[in-house]
């Protein structure tokens, strides 16, 4: 379907993952460039208001030093995703992988631990990532945990943000015990999940890019880099 749309020169927005493999995604990106089509992948975490604001606050003091994404789910005694058609990291935990790229920049080196716990498919992923910017990224994804949790840390010079994108961010500065709490509903003036979790803003971004004939942030070519990082995590097991 995507290839058909690209051949028809239709601008296109698709859900994540952009493809089953990085090569498939690369070929889609190549065709999009050849046809002059604007593309976007639904990595909405990049557009979550609290994540965007926290990153801005950190970068006011300089470059990001370290970032960590935590993505946990209770998924015990369950079959593999789509009966094994695709793996958890590529299909779902890729949200965390993409967000690390958004915050850290270009990837330089990766070391990882990938395990299959209580199942016959991989469901536990930890990675240490060195970015060309000098920042360090940490991926922590575990589908054998007690409940669904998605959280983010961004560390800078004398400042850190702990972010629950759908609830609040807490920012600590200069060793002070009290942190600044940013409530997502108060900050955005909105309360629906699609409004506070990044869905609304990513759709606005796509529409604005179409109107201005500008390449969206999470275009197919950029998504190739996220898929390649997934590959690197699998290939860099210690």
Features:
238 residues, alpha+beta, Dihydrodipicolinate Reductase, domain 2, eight-stranded mixed beta sheet, two-stranded parallel ribbon, 9 helices, 10 strands, 36% helix, globular
Give me the secondary-structure topology.
Layout: H1 2-7, E1 12-14, H2 22-35, E2 39-41, H3 49-59, E3 66-74, H4 88-91, H5 94-104, E4 107-115, E5 124-131, E6 136-142, E7 144-156, E8 159-164, E9 168-173, E10 180-183, H6 184-188, H7 193-196, H8 199-212, H9 220-235
Parallel strand pairs: 1-2, 3-6
Antiparallel strand pairs: 3-7, 4-5, 5-6, 7-8, 8-9, 9-10
Helix pairs in contact: 2-9, 5-9
How does this model look, in words?
By secondary structure, the protein is α+β, with helices and mostly antiparallel strands. The protein has one domain (43-235): Dihydrodipicolinate Reductase, domain 2. It has helices at 2-7, 22-35, 49-59, 88-91, 94-104, 184-188, 193-196, 199-212, 220-235; strands at residues 12-14, 39-41, 66-74, 107-115, 124-131, 136-142, 144-156, 159-164, 168-173, 180-183. It has an 8-stranded mixed β-sheet. Helix 5 packs across helix 9.
Q: Strands of the biggest beta sheet: in what spatial order?
A: 4-5-6-3-7-8-9-10
Corresponding CATH superfamily: Dihydrodipicolinate Reductase, domain 2
Query: What is the total number of structural domains?
Result: 1
Strand content: 25-35%
Radius of gyration: 18 Å
Distance between the termini: 38 Å
CATH C-level name = Alpha Beta
Average pLDDT, to the nearest integer?
A: 98
Helix content class: 25-40%
Q: Any guess at the CATH architecture?
A: 2-Layer Sandwich
Order of helices and strands: HEHEHEHHEEEEEEEHHHH
Give the tally of β-strands.
Answer: 10
Give the overall silhouette. Answer: globular
